[in-house]
Each structure stands twice: as structure tokens, then as C-alpha cells.
Amino acid sequence: MKDQRKFVLAAISAAVMSIVSCHGGKTVAEATPVAAPQVEERLAFDSAEWHDSARVHPNGITRVDYKCVYPVKGSKVLKDSIMRWVYEQYGDSAYNGVADVKALLERTGRKTIAADKPELAEILSYRGGDDGYTVEYATDIHTYVEYEDAEYVTMFCQTYMYRAGAHGSTVNNVVTFSKKDGSRCGWNLLGDMSRKDITDRIKARLKEVLDITEPDTDAKLREVLFGMSEADYAEKFPLPAFPPFLTKEGVVVMYQQYEIAPYAVGMPSCVIKKL
Q: How far apart are CA 244 and CA 6, in angstroms?
């Protein structure tokens, strides 16, 4: 479980380092001409997949399942911004403006399998001969379009890793991009909402998810959360490490596994601001 939590926290840290705020301001001239109606520009997308596995003697297997939806038509600035993010999800930060997603999936997938094989072989060496029980390593990375409108597009990447333990670990990295300039949006999607307003809505949603009822709902919720003092619960309730993102329901925040509560709580999310 410690390794699984380390994977989740490491993924959260990597994603936080890649967050770039999205800004947008408008200057209106004193005499603003009437603009012609704008036709909403929708991106066009394609998809690619790569799957492979390798046996490790005597009874181990490591497998990779990579799927990716990515933009192929639209403004270059926006496409490049999304593609840079896509490459990051598969462990490659060297996007150079030329997208070859099939090659990306194969290259990074083979690298994952090559790294897994000696680690899996070491685990198997402690077990002796073939006992008929298969030991598995698995890495699944699936990237797709979560939402798109005239101003924004939201991309969703789910990474699942299983390392022969009691259960696997999942990280959901979801980012909203501005169509105006391709920038990655974040907490600015919530406008001028106060931290207290945001955390009050998160607490209310967590109580729903956990089916916490009166009396003393705050005390009951605090007992479930990791290391939450009464003072922190009231004044410094932790926001998700990943930024908010836009869906058809509105602006959403999501906690990762182990980020705020035990594995059994899952990955709670909350619509903070409805469209």
C-alpha cells in the first residue's frame, strides 16, 4: 500500500509542476463596433492504441495498454499545447511540434515493459519454482476528450498501475485548455469564489459520498480524513493538488486516491460552480 500511495503522490507532484494558469482579459474601446457572429470552432480528433506484454520466467507477466485521443485539426497553438500535455502523460516531455502518437505509445510502452521485467523477475526469484500462480504487472494509460465548447476543451487522462499487490492505483489528470491561446486553465475557472465557499461545498459533497448524517457531521467527516485537526478542518481544509476542470455539469474539483482519505473513499469529486 505504501508503494501505491507513493505512486499516487508522485504523480500528483509531477502534474502540479506542469500546471500553467490560464489568463484572459478583454479591453473594450469606447466605440465598439458590432462584431459579426462567430462560428464555433470544434477541434477534430484522431485516436491511437498500443498494447503489448512480456512473459517473465517462470510465471510472471507485464503488460501495457495505451490508448490516446488527440487533436489533428484546429489552431496550431491549441493543438501544440494539448499535444505537449499528451506527451507528458505517457512519460515523454520532448514534444517538438510534430505529433506521432502511435510511435509515442509504442516507444514509451516498450520502455515501461523493459523497466518492469527485471523488477518482476526479482519478485519471482523469492518465490522459487512455478507455483501455478501468475504474478502480474500492468500499466494502463487512457487519454480522451472529456468536454468541449466554444471557449474550452477538457482532456482527461487516467493512469492505472498494478504491481502484484492487493489492488492497483489510479491517477486521474484532467486539464482544461483555453481555445483562445492554448493555455492550461486552473483555479481561475472559479472566478472570485472564496476559499471558504469552495471548501464548504467540498465538505458537503464528501458528506454525501460517505453518507454522513446528523448529528455532528463535521466531526464524523474529520475522523475519516487523513491527519485532519479540528483547526485545519475549519481554517485550512486542503484543496485538491490538481486544478479544477470544466465538464458539461460545470467546474469540478477532484481528489486523487490517498490524497485526502483512505483508498476505500475513492477519488471524490465535486461540482463547485455549475454552468
A: 23
d(CA 210, CA 264): 10
pLDDT score at 10: 56
Which residues are CB-contacts of 65 (< 8 A; sequence separation ≥ 6)?
Answer: 51, 138, 139, 140, 141, 142
- Max CA pair span of the chain: 83
The structure's pTM equals: 0.85
Judged against a pLDDT cut of 70, whether residue 24 lies above it is answered with no
